[in-house]
Amino acid sequence: MARKQGSDTEATNGLEFQDSVSTLLERRGVTRREFMKFCTAMSAALALPPAFAPRIVRALDEVKRPTLVWLEFQSCTGDTEALLRASNPTVAEIVLDILSIDYAETIMAAAGHLAEANLDKVVREEKGTYIAVVEGSIPMKDDGIYCCIAGRTALDRAREVCGGAFATLAVGTCASYGGIPAAAPNPTGAVGVKAAVPSATVVNLPGCPLNADNLTATVVHFLLFKKLPATDGLGRPLFAYGKRIHDNCERRPHFDAGQYVEAWGDQAHRHGHCLYKMGCKGPETFHNCPTQRYNDKTSWPVAAGHGCAGCSQPMFWDSMTPLYKRLPNVPGFGIEATADKIGLGLAVGTAAAFGVHGVLSAFRRGDDSEGAKED
Amino acid sequence: MAKIVVDPITRIEGHLRIEAEVNGGRITDAWSGSTMFRGIEKILQGRDPRDAWYFTQRFCGVCTTVHSIASIRAVENALNITVPPNADLIRNIIMGVQNVQDHVIHFYHLHALDWVDITSALRADPAGTASLAASLSEWPLNSTTYFKEVQEKLKAFVAKGRLGPFANAYWGHPAMKLPPEANLMATAHYLEALQWQKDIIRIHAILGSKNPHPQTFLVGGMAIPIDLDSQNALNADKLAEIGGLLKKTRDFVEKVYIPDLLAVASFYKEWAGIGGGVGNYLSYGEFPDPASGRMFFPAGIVLGRDLSKVHPVDQKKIAEYVDHSWYEYSGGSGKGFHPWDGETEPKYTGPRPPYEHLDTDRKYSWVKSPRYEERSMEVGPLAKLLVAYAAGHKETRDAVGLVLKHLNVGPEALFSTLGRTAARGLDCLITAQQLPGWLAQLEDNIGKGDLRIHAGEKWDPATWPGDAAGYGWHEAPRGALGHWIKIRGGQILNYQAVVPSTWNASPRDHKGQRGPYEEALVGTPIADPNKPLEILRTIHSFDPCLACAVHVLDAAGNETVRVRVT
């Protein structure tokens, strides 16, 4: 079927806004004050001193409307939903909008071949300059027939779109490392973007789903410093994944004092004591949940009484489950039984021993399936 | 004759493809195929049943609570666990808010663009929009100034740059009938709804840490503690905040969503005669009242559009067929398996990508075909309301009567694309009006000193029987959702979900009977085969959600290698 393009409502590609971002935002109902607040929040998210806020304002004012395309492969759409609930609502969304989201299955008005035409156009005309966002894993088994869009495999599309992008942001644990489809026995041979398209420049923003603030902050970082943020050995920006949950946890004093929840709804639970014995994976998880929180900074799992599931760690579906089993061998504890006797001295040792990522698999009995191996 | 392919069907969750034959300006046959598959049920085997909710929640990031609750109920059913009243009430609030938020997002962000031409809003007279809006409701933002401002923003967006997510849609389509003033009103509310949904969903964060994917469910209850004297628990502060958000929830539904729905529907009444589908309706019922033990919405089945009789639901009569799905059954095709005994072995026999067409004579989807006594069943808000209506449920009778009267149509108008879209709004309205009552019940319990949120007697798998089997039902925003589990030795032996979109998106079955999407498309007029807007209207009226519709169940006894922490 012939592609229908160039309808009267579709403007020419490559047009750039002449106005500054702040002017545009004002036109869309965002006040200067709200914009400044957003920039200060971004400065905090990026772990920059507050003095950087005005520089973020200037950086955003220089935006030349790069294009962003959002691809969904083996996903649950949780990351798209997270974006729609972004906790710096108006501005976060508009900053992404100002990037011009030209393709995003869940929200775009176009359908079928007309939708695909939008994506083809970006790939063809903006090679090397657009940003690709990928949600969901990519199946490799049986030539990738477990995920097709418009008659093409996810792998085929990813090679083309991510291969031609300036950079690819893998949002959520599925796009980063394969996520739940890659959990043992990984029926479809699912992998993350970097594993599927090794030539692509990929930044991983894991989490199940991702915290949309970290996506916004990555984009702002790029606009501010004209380069991608520094990452750890797992491809995650250090500003968001550089610290353990445990080290910023509001319940940490109770861990150090040896005050633990023993049963759901007991007095310790009601009074916010440590969830380690209920299976909390915070001691082995690197993420900024305790500081960034979710839904307009309302809460995060540990604050609401449930342990951390370790969802930003690669292959957490295999390495962090069963969810309610306490971590088998927290360094510094010796064996898990010693949690009952833990005190301040032991906790100090814990912090030191946790300086290395990827220690997790060493403590566990190995998984036979290929997909479940860490690192 | 032309064969139309729409792939991807956008503004849904997941990957859906529709192929349709058009003759003389009408669809004469249609095929619904899903093109993505992950295999989560296979991944569940051998794991801790108490973890199942966390895995199944990832069936879908849109329906972020519904698989949690169905899974939790399945395990509780298998182990014969009764949860404390507070847990039921907290679950009702979470599920109710999910229902309301989901329906509003569907109407404005996933479905409205099939009826509303945003580009036409540019030509509207803002004063006309204000008077139209004022004639419909008392919403405070119904002013000329406000609508003018929205129109200015829209003009700036269109004039200055690219259309981004609004590019290349079916704008200016001859089947678009709203006057510019109504289009402007709907566009303004599209933007308002985007803000509103972020605010009210904070209820999920307060009760369950975050949304999407709240992290608070437990087999036996909930993980959010209650204590009026603690900063770390559900206390008076948080209850008051939830109360305020529930008011905001209800206000928007009553004063914006329902008036918009009625206004839009009145311009598209011909759609009350299009898209009816299979005519059989299944609902599992929902919202347990811990005081009476009864469900607020009743469970039941309506067959052949006969509203004079409600049949009881017997879960044993459900079976799934794979005659047109990319799986193979041991012992050959032509038979169905009940979820407890089901088996699935993926076997792709479709065309090698890249392809132009699926082989619709044979197998063409990753979705199976669930059937109830070998019948195709439609599930969703329409089914939920028809069952409740036929059962004489007062709240439903009142709400349905209101809409039928407003549109000046009879109950037969409900069996249609328009009826499905209207039923979703009414489901949303009834639920939004019930929510404050559950909060009041919860506050009442807490006031009496009942702080229990979890029944912990059977938390330890050592207390479980060697073998157990259970099922969990939830009447989700998209319809009847069921999870089935078999447990052996404290581990998941078998797990299967039969989800709303599996019912609705199912391909043909062993008898060649079409699934509900397919059946609903037959007879639909198509004005321009190059811009099949009408297909989107009917498919979107079901609110497709495909990720969860595709799943793998492995036969008992296959290898289940699993990491075990010891």
Structural class of chain B: alpha+beta
What is the first-to-last residue Cα distance of chain A? 45 Å
Percent of residues in helices of chain B comes to 25-40%
**Helical proportion of chain A, percent range:** 25-40%
Q: What structural category arises from helix and sheet content of chain A?
A: alpha/beta
Radius of gyration of chain B: 24 Å
Total strands of chain B: 16
Any idea what the shape of chain B is?
A: globular
Name the overall outline of chain A.
Answer: globular
Biggest interface, chains and residue tallies: A-B, 115 and 117 residues
Number of helices of chain B: 15
Oligomer: heterodimer
Mean pLDDT over the full residue set of chain B? 94
Q: Low-confidence runs of chain A (pLDDT<50, min 5 residues)?
A: 1-18, 331-375
* Major sheet attributes of chain B: 3 strands, antiparallel
- Indicate the mean pLDDT of chain A: 83
Q: Give the SSE string of chain A.
A: HHHEHHEHEEEEHEHEHEHHHHHHHHH
Nutshell version of this structure?
The complex is a heterodimer of chains A (375) and B (566). Chain A is an alpha/beta fold and 375 residues long.
Write the layout of secondary structure elements.
The complex is a heterodimer of chains A (375) and B (566).
Chain A: H1 21-27, H2 32-45, H3 53-61, E1 68-72, H4 78-84, H5 89-98, E2 101-104, H6 112-125, E3 131-135, E4 138-139, E5 148-149, E6 152-153, H7 154-163, E7 167-171, H8 172-177, E8 190-191, H9 193-196, E9 202-205, H10 212-225, H11 238-241, H12 245-248, H13 252-256, H14 267-270, H15 289-292, H16 316-319, H17 344-353, H18 360-363
Parallel strand pairs in A: 1-2, 1-3, 3-7, 7-9
Antiparallel strand pairs in A: 4-8, 5-6
Chain B: E1 2-6, E2 16-23, E3 26-34, H1 40-44, H2 52-56, H3 66-79, H4 85-111, H5 126-136, H6 144-160, H7 180-200, H8 202-208, E4 217-218, E5 221-222, H9 236-267, E6 281-283, E7 286-288, E8 295-297, E9 300-302, E10 318-321, E11 327-328, E12 345-346, E13 369-372, H10 381-390, H11 394-407, H12 417-447, E14 467-476, E15 479-488, E16 491-498, H13 500-505, H14 516-521, H15 533-541
Antiparallel strand pairs in B: 1-2, 2-3, 4-5, 6-9, 7-8, 10-13, 11-12, 14-15, 15-16
Helix pairs in contact in B: 4-7, 4-8, 4-9, 4-12, 5-6, 5-7, 7-9, 9-12, 10-12, 11-12
